[in-house]
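quick one before i forget lol
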Amino acid sequence: MEENGERNSRNGSFKLGVKDVKIHTVVELSSVDTQNLLVEEDREKKKKPFTKRKSLSQREMKCLVAICDTLLPSIKDHSVVVDESVANFYQTSASMAGTPQLIATLISEKLQHPNTWLLRLTLWLLSTWFGTLILCGISSFSLKFPFFHSFSQLSLQKRQQIMLSWSLSYFNLLRMFFRSVKLLTLLLFFTQLDEAQNNPSWSAIGYSGPDPQFKAQLMNNDNDDYAEEIIGPLNKGIVHLNNPPNIIADTLRKFGFHASFTTRKPKVSYNLSYPSLVIKCDAVVVGSGSGGGVVAGVLAKAGYKVLVLEKGNYSARNNLSLLEGPTLDQMYLSNGFLSTEDMSVLLLAGSTVGGGSAINWSACIKTPKHVCKEWCGRYELELFESELYEEAMNVVCEKMGVQCEIEEEGFNNEILRKGCQEMGYPVSNIPRNAPKDHYCGWCCLGCKDGKKKGTSETWLVDLVKSGNGAILTSCEAIQVLHKRKKGSDRKIASGVSFAIEYKGTKEICVVESKVTIVACGALSTPSLLKRSGLRNENIGRYLHLHPTTMAWGYFPDSPSAELWPEKDKKSYEGGIMTAMSTVVADFEKSGYGAVIQTPALHPGMFSVLMPWTSGLDIKDRMRKYSRTAHVFALARDQGSGIVNSPNSISYQMNDVDKENLKKGIEKVLRILAAAGAEEIGTHHNKGRRLNVKQVSYNEFEKFVQEESSRPLTDISTPLCSAHQMGSCRMGSNPKESVVNQIGETWEVEGLFLADTSVFPTALGVNPMVTVQAIAYCTAQSVLQVLRRKRTW
């Protein structure tokens, strides 16, 4: 197999653009040890024997092929065949599409999950008869010689029975293994592309691929004015690091930065004492999302020189593919393959210019009053009931053009709204940072026209237009630099170090700044602080995830011709979030409950979440994809987790969180049925479903009660999170928090945090307005610091 993961298959030449991701172990370093971080990846590989090899062995590969073809087998002579595309879909197995080879590349070279070595070990065990006996039991035994068989030698029927038993096993490791191989197989199968940027299964499941209007615009509009419009507003402010340091220095000087390049001396390696590139600025901001983007824009517009370091790339409008696989690869943290250590929660987080605001679902809800009251009272943070914070929320909402009107509602949201109205549940419009005519279900893959006002369309535009800032892309900070403050025991921030690689050589670069703002997100900020030598025991603790659980409803026909004049509305079309119910939110009492909303599920993520009970069953479920609505319950969690690194996350809900999700999923099932669903079900691995049209009231009630009372203590029901908060929380004293209420760390003066990591608790609603408002307030405090500093 080629290094880029390409492979010819019976269905064409498929490819998945999985980028190389540098893995840095979380270690605490003094400034003189920074160079050691660059070789930490090699050290880590030596610790795990099953991750040391670059590629899977032939035995492991044979086992992986058998597993993939168990999940997605070739099914011939299926009765439900309406055209050639459907017939091909059922007849195509995972191996016929080349999916196992793509998975092998991911496992051996890309995956960063701390238990990847266990995945390799399990594959190896299943490639042997004794390992298969241990993991599969008596099912691997036969009466014919050689009596005991490896997994790949078993019949398809036996393999499917074994995998189904793993999905429901009492042993957590077996459930984890099932979840892992299911996720990899289904996600890659339904997102991989042929040379025409198409997937043959899409036609069979009723999926268009990228937005047809977007594709038509790109093909039919090649005039200069249109080309300039779709490029996006940040191109002139982007500095790429794929050039030699002297060229980077020249580029930064054109932006008005003081940048000096040092020529390498013979036999001398670059390090913090001898960096290849030194850049001076007023403020360095690490991260360009809803926190970092706001701070960068405010400071630059005030006249200060601001340099933004962004780990991801800039996906300009004309560079967007609106394809699920490539976008997960290019715009999401860890290529979209991110979960807690035990695989109990699947995580989605942005890693691109604009951060989460570039790929989120547009919801812009102000910080609820009961949350402001709790943060002000219980946590003694007066900021959240101040005029400044109220002003900040108004400013950021105006900046993003937040409004509540909707011209036309999409499939999922109309289901939610209709079901709530039928049940008498409260339902309201969700404010969005998009105009009322923004009917787009692809916003989780980037905004095709810039109408969704994330930071790359607002605050970062201020940065670029001011002439005072620049954005370094594909630039991952190594550590925050700090030194002892004169006449004090306290440390003071002095900048950030990062590395560039040119012609195979990694070189250390330094940004010297008056203030440093870290806004890497709740999953990455703790690691950077720890690498930088900060010792506050609260760093990485109190992580909240807003865990969500979903239910689905199948609607073969429109519930109401009057409501839906177009019968063929698809589940992936329309504004992702326009309706919300607070029927179990408990805003007026404890402040902890669950809100009910709708997700964006393109085929890959849809397939991962749907239950698997057999290869035929999952293909039948996927055939209903375009008319299957999903609604979820999102809990404001009191339980919490710990971030050891962006890829090593532990998390535990408490009993109250579980009960709130159960209450939420009960309401969701009733909403779907009331909206006219023919079938309803949850994501529990047993795969139970109910034909609502064919059962009695008592049978319906029994189903709802049983499905909503299932325990959420294991991974038999997948949970998801698109919001990560609180891992470096704000507070009134350093024993319980990482930053004070102006966003400055207790340990290092001049080091500010401006992302969701500073949330004192979980928020309970979509966090974009809250994080931007906090960042705006933090920016005002940074401005006061800069006004007191001397110029360079």
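fyi Residues 768-788 form the longest helix (21 residues).
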